Amino acid sequence: MSLKLKNTEKYLKKYTETLLNRLVYETSRIDRTRTYKSGTITGSITATGKLEQSFEINHNKKKNTFDLLGNSYGEAVDEGTTSSNPPVRKLINWLISKNKTLKDSKNNTIDMSDFKKVRRVAFAIQKSLKLQGIQKTGFISKTIKDEFIKLNTIYNPIIKDIELDLDNILLRAGYKKTGKETYLIEKQINK
């Protein structure tokens, strides 16, 4: 006999789905501002959409857990790094997908179809990331902190589950049912 937690499970599923939706929103939010030595950028964290597309819920029915999963680099974007070494190929793809216009250090516009110039910029970014790392965004930590407060109401579905399964709980605790709503526990006194 096990405790039936249908309401608690429903609550946790909804909570995890809300958390996932908030993370997708925070990743793609276009009003996020980050300041670097080279200037200020206002725009989404994502370039290709792969990070927010990677978020998924894994429900382990055996353990009755809900895990929120996503690409591992999301954690580096959230917490920041002291050093990072992304492949130049990925930086080129990021530059092309993220930027409509790209300017060099002399404020000249770089033609995004000029692969050699875009590649040079990607190498410069890679070098900068090795030296300075990734700036912390806090988009995961803040979302979790904001949503964690909602877990304060988890007692409501737990109480409902206990009320619905009280007979089984009392029987498992050693009580014997003696009437429609009467339970008795026998104590053995050791002398």
Protein architecture, described:
It is a single chain. The chain has 191 residues and is of the alpha+beta class. The chain folds into two domains: 1-81 and 135-191, no CATH class; 82-133, no CATH class. 48% of the residues lie in helices and 14% in strands. The protein contains eight helices and eight strands. Helix 4 crosses helix 5. It starts with 5 loop residues before the first helix and ends in a 7-residue tail after the last strand.
Gist?
The chain has two domains: 1-81 and 135-191, no CATH class; 82-133, no CATH class. The chain contains eight helices and eight strands.
Considering the chains and any ligands shown, give keywords for the structure.
191 residues; alpha+beta; 2 domains; two-stranded antiparallel sheet; rod-shaped
How would you write the strand order of the largest sheet? 1-2
Secondary-structure element pattern, one letter each: HEEHEEHHEEHHHHEE
Number of discrete helical segments: 8
Given as residue ranges, the uncertain stretches (5+ residues, pLDDT < 50) are none
Provide the gyration radius in Å: 27 Å
Give the fraction of residues assigned to helices: 40-55%
The quaternary state of the protein chains shown equals single chain
User: Which word captures the global form?
Assistant: rod-shaped
Fraction in beta strands = 5-15%
Report the biggest beta sheet as strand number plus sense, adding barrel if it closes.
2 strands, antiparallel
Mean pLDDT: 85
Distance between the termini: 33 Å
Count of structural domains: 2
Q: Structural class, from secondary structure content?
A: alpha+beta
The count of DSSP E runs of length 2 or more, i.e. the number of strands, is: 8
